[in-house]
Amino acid sequence: MEKSFVKRVFAFFLILAAFAFLSLPQAFAEPKGTVVMFHAGSLTMPFEAMEKEFEARYPGVDLQREASGSQAAARKVTDLNKPCDIMASADFKVIDKLLIPKHADWNIRFATNELVLCYTDKSKFAKEVNAKNWYNILQRKGVVWGHSDPNLDPCGYRALMVLQLAEKYYKKPGLYEKILANRPVENIRPKSVELVSLLQTGNMDYAWEYRSVAVQHNLKYVSLPDKINLGNYKEDPYYSQAVVKVTGKKPGEYMEMKGASTTYGITLIKNAPNQEAAVAFLEYMLNPKGGLKILKDQGQPPFIPCRVPTQKMKSTLPEKLQKLVEVKD
């Protein structure tokens, strides 16, 4: 009889344990489903590598990415109302100006970069161009050079900022307009990475790109002084002299983008269809041993730890992300 009683007690606790296990919160379950991300074109190669690594860890998740200029990515959310979980911008200010507060609550700064002038062995004056004469070569007849659309892609307005700053740095009045006079409108492309194929096929001699893009595509490039390359935060007061007007939130509206060091931002869209899996990806991406390592390996310096400007913003982050972020303006 005692044995029978023990068996019944054991069975009772076994059933209780089963119920407890089945009633565990969903947080303990692996994320699954589709995660949609709109991101800057310059992040295509590192995000491709992250996608493979993340999906290997979480086979139930399908990360679907759309690359474009950063403003274009934001407008897919604001104007086209396309379903989206995560938006990553080559300029964190695009998130601040176009997505917060209506479409996003916070903005994590995760990496930096700098502008370089890219070329190949096929480029005219490839053996001659350097950091001291590049602005003269871009004015030469027959030289084909371009940049991305400032209204769609931060690399586009940053390229114009570099030219404005070069005029001041080299003390050459009128240099900005003279260089632009040798760049036809058709050499302005929707996103900076589209210029890479034009360089590689010999259809363009020079193009403004981020250093990380140049490294990832094995392009030759001219490195510029810190005073004009938008790559050193200590030079932000000098960079702020450059201002470019671009299209704003609504048709007919414009906003001024002021020169500053190149800083990338990422956010979770408020009505994210798959918030759980999106946060899992962000937790992986912002980890120094995860996505940030891939960025570093591909020539783009990450912030370790990543940053938000205020404690108030940090407190709005999902709990899993707060440990990966510091408060630093």
Q: What does this protein look like?
A:
With 329 residues, this protein is of the alpha/beta class. The protein has 2 domains: 26-112 and 264-327, Periplasmic binding protein-like II (D-Maltodextrin-Binding Protein, domain 2, 3-Layer(aba) Sandwich); 115-256, Periplasmic binding protein-like II (D-Maltodextrin-Binding Protein, domain 2, 3-Layer(aba) Sandwich). Helices cover 37% and strands 21% of the residues. The protein has helices at 2-22, 44-57, 70-78, 92-99, 134-137, 154-169, 175-180, 194-200, 211-216, 236-239, 275-285, 291-297, 311-316, 319-322; strands at residues 33-40, 61-68, 86-89, 108-112, 115-119, 145-148, 188-189, 206-210, 220-222, 243-247, 254-258, 263-268, 302-308, 325-327. The protein has a 7-stranded mixed β-sheet. Strands 7-6-8-5-9 form a 5-stranded mixed β-sheet, sandwiched between helices. The protein has a two-stranded antiparallel sheet with strand order 10-11. Strand 1, helix 2 and strand 2 (61-68) form a beta-alpha-beta unit. Mean pLDDT is 92; it is low at 15-27. One of its GO terms (biological process) is molybdate ion transport. It holds the Pfam family SBP_bac_11. One of its GO terms (molecular function) is molybdate ion binding. Keywords: Signal.
